[in-house]
Model the fold of this input.
Amino acid sequence: MEVFETTKIGKCELKNRIIRSATFEGMCDEQGFPTSDYYSFYEKLAQNEVGGIITGFSYISTEGKAMQPGQAGIDSEEKIPYFIKLTDNVHKHNCKIFMQIAHTGRQTRKQETGKDVVGCSPKKSFYFGSKPKVLTSREIYEIIEQFGYSALYAKEAGFDGIQIHAAHGYLIHQFILPSINTRDDEFGVDPKTKIGTKFLDLIIDKIRQKCGNEFSILIKISWGDDYSDKFSKGQFVNLISFLNTKMIDAIEISYGTMDYALNVFRGDFPADLILSKNPFYKTKSRFLKILNKTFVFPFFKIKLKPLKPMYNLEYAVLAKRYTHIPVISVGGFRGADEIEYSIKTKKTDFVGLSRALINEPDFVKKIKKNGQYISKCKNCNYCAIMCDTNNITKCYTAS
Ligand SMILES: Cc1cc2nc3c(=O)[nH]c(=O)nc-3n(C[C@H](O)[C@H](O)[C@H](O)COP(=O)(O)O)c2cc1C
Done:
């Protein structure tokens, strides 16, 4: 396999095997409509050789909205014309675009959504803190319907497909994990596989039913987490084996939940920026700053996983042993040689990039020209911390 060869995700042809992984933009208005920043941001990426783009996570309902300002929403028909403008712009450059659709579940706050925080169980996320209202079976079926409609709106807006966000601790992931899903109804954890897939199963079927077989369905999952009752390799294999029975077109392998968000990304822990920008930690009090820096942050740092190159690749390799569905590996790809190695040796079918493209939107163009090129991203994670502010996503430390 070659990096720069035409290939397919479902029925959709891509000019190479590099995907821009979902990256929150912070470029939509309060109702989730795209602004001019959103259009130009994606046009710039599309012009610069990336094979396919997955948008930042977009909410399927206001209840499932994130607490970060500026999130895109695909929760109503009204949005369709605004996204048509986006997909037209991207398609002009022979680039494909998939919309990531999500419901945050317990990983949000009522003060931002205006709605009760909901979850599959009453278990709180320790970072977000709200005790979720437990979803009834009827409400779960309504959310499945909303996923279906959002995918249909995305299709009508010209997207080549959608990516179901089943990773990073959001609602679908909450259902998958036995450490969160304590239900004893049909949406509970299967005692045989030790994972809860019924919710996801019905979402996939609903989207297929509404959007047909030509529309690409991608899915993003986490291979592990940082809770004390950790997701095991066996559970991961069961999840892949389940996905292998479904009509989906690509599986992206990521890691973690937003309770330990920096383990999703890896890299630096920018303590001072967190203290000045993060809504849970920002404070003017010198005392609280010192307290957090001396006692709270060291606790997080103990749990912090190191940023190694291609840090989720091992699990992409494992996934490929249990599925014929194309796999995307994301996390820690910085060198042209790493991308080439992973594709040539068939360890993954696609490579996903987030921060390298925040830092240099023309990174793919550069590696196409120079097989030794290395990203200038410093892994400072300022881009991630700034998602919690009213600022757009960009590289804050590019030299
Ligand atoms: C600023 C920022 C925003 C992100 N937003 C999303 C998102 O909306 N959905 C998602 O699935 N992952 C999101 N991610 C995670 C990335 O897709 C990716 O999994 C992670 O950053 C590791 O890849 P990298 O080393 O190429 O950055 C985000 C990452 C960053 C840095």
User: Anything to note?
Assistant: The pocket of flavin mononucleotide is lined by residues 21-24, 56-57, 100, 165, 167-168, 220, 254, 264-265, 330-333, 353-356, 383-384, 387, 393 (CB under 6 Å).
